[in-house]
Amino acid sequence: xxxxxxxxxxxxxxxxxxxxxxxxxxxxxxxxxxxxxxxxxxxxxxxxxxxxxxxxxxxxxxxxxxxxxxxxxxxxxxxxxxxxxxxxxxxxxxxxxxxxxxxxxxxxxxxxxxxxxxxxxxxxxxxxxxxxxxxxxxxxxxxxxxxxxxxxxxxxxxxxxxxxxxxxxxxxxxxxxxxxxxxxxxxxxxxxxxxxxxxxxxxxxxxxxxxxxxxxxxxxxxxxxxxxxxxxxxxxxxxxxxxxxxxxxxxxxxxxxxxxxxxxxxxxxxxxxxxxxxxxxxxxxxxxxxxxxxxxxxxxxxxxxxxxxxxxxxxxxxxxxxxxxxxxxxxxxxxxxxxxxxxxxxxxxxxxxxxxxxxxxxxxxxxxxxxxxxxxxxxxxxxxxxxxxxxxxxxxxxxxxxxxxxxxxxxxxxxxxxxxxxxxxxxxxxxxxxxxxxxxxxxxxxxxxxxxxxxxxxxxxxxxxxxxxxxxxxxxxxxxxxxxxxxxxxxxxxxxxxxxxxxxxxxxxxxxxxxxxxxxxxxxxxxxxxxxxxxxxxxxxxxxxxxxxxxxxxxxxxxxxxxxxxxxx
Length: 569
Fold this sequence. Notes:
Layout: H1 2-5, E1 37-40, E2 45-51, E3 64-73, E4 78-81, E5 89-92, H2 103-106, E6 114-119, E7 141-155, E8 162-168, E9 181-190, E10 195-198, E11 204-207, H3 216-221, E12 229-234, E13 260-270, E14 272-274, E15 281-287, E16 300-309, E17 314-318, E18 326-329, H4 337-343, E19 351-356, E20 367-368, E21 373-374, E22 380-390, H5 400-419, H6 423-436, H7 445-468, H8 472-485, H9 490-502, H10 506-519, H11 524-568
Antiparallel strand pairs: 1-2, 2-6, 3-4, 3-5, 3-7, 6-7, 7-8, 8-12, 9-10, 9-11, 9-13, 12-13, 14-15, 15-19, 16-17, 16-18, 16-22, 19-22, 20-21
Helix pairs in contact: 5-6, 5-7, 6-7, 7-8, 7-9, 8-9, 9-10, 9-11, 10-11
Enzyme class: isomerase
Protein name: peptidylprolyl isomerase
Domain PPIase FKBP-type: 62-151, 179-270, 298-390
């Protein structure tokens, strides 16, 4: 029997099942002790624990449970017993196959548990017992129940179209996604037992997003864990519908309107990650790395790899065949962007295949590498292993003088990038630098003064980057942060005035310029943008005058027409 194969319950459940069911025990009361009795819910069902089960999981309504039970009246008269038949019974919880209300007691039990349930008369029994005795409809009855095992049953499609029965629980909690490559084994049969499809002994690999066999298969696979084995009952609308399917590609024909029984095992899967979010750098994990940490930005990493073109031509090797591994610092543009971005997501010991679009590779140029030439606009492939890395410390991991030193480095790195015209990268350095000297850093007096100066410098420099990138609102925001602390800061007033002029807020730009000149009347740069502001104001006034003239002219013309029409009347 299927139920006898199940030794554990899966923790995969529909989220809808989290709501309390009638008679289900969801309470803060302590677990029952052996010999203790308690009412379950408000139905009047009483439970007395006779033998503890093990584990912490319990079945849900809808699951298929395998039980032994003995039914008696209060005087001890036995009217039903599976033990007399020497074979347990498999029931679908929630259908009340044994007796109304008893299912709600079974869902409170753990595997191996034995309990005595007392059902009040109003739940009613009123049937002929297996022993031939009639149970009065108003009788109070007792059932001694042993929960042997159960199979978790999940309605994947929410309409009964794909029902999953978990035969063997999988490992860990990860489940494959659309991009992942899975290795599965399956056997597909019709209701009469005719096998219409079966994988080889070693299984078959495919990407979930590409689909396989029928639409139900990838839907089910995305709910499974590694090593999980299930039985799927698939209705025609999720199989091959009213048309069925002709024999092809090694699959037998499937008659129209066929229900399929699919025994499915998820052997393993290789996570596939869209590193850049636009499918231009794809990482397929061949071997998972160690621990929880990945090589973050500015980490010092050591990697080995084989780099090739899509046709398999190898153009570079590092750490392979006697070559030295490659050492570099991430996010410093020391390698191509695709390799840089992907390596920053890897754990120590991780092995992966990277597929990199030209936008994150060598672009439109011809690149001469150690072993071959990479033509322009080439997709490239790296089989890479993370040998080791040293992560850059996060601000909270540092003591004060380390944070100040790290902030100075970020400023220097940002300044160098700014001089090279790499304004976006420079802005990122300045933005990260602020984290090291934030106001909640608990600095001492002298350190606090230095941290404040660095913080203001990062905001001012970030505003300069934003102006270069035409992100004027960001420039206004950063300058305003400075002016909240130093209301007379000429650089902040000057750069905010520039941003206001670009968004045509000439009134606020004039206010900032006036404040800046009050502090530094001879500042040449401020005087220059004052001159530009006056020119813009003149142009704006001319446009306004022309606009008002046109509006006034149309109104005058309209009044004249109305006057003529009135005179005609």
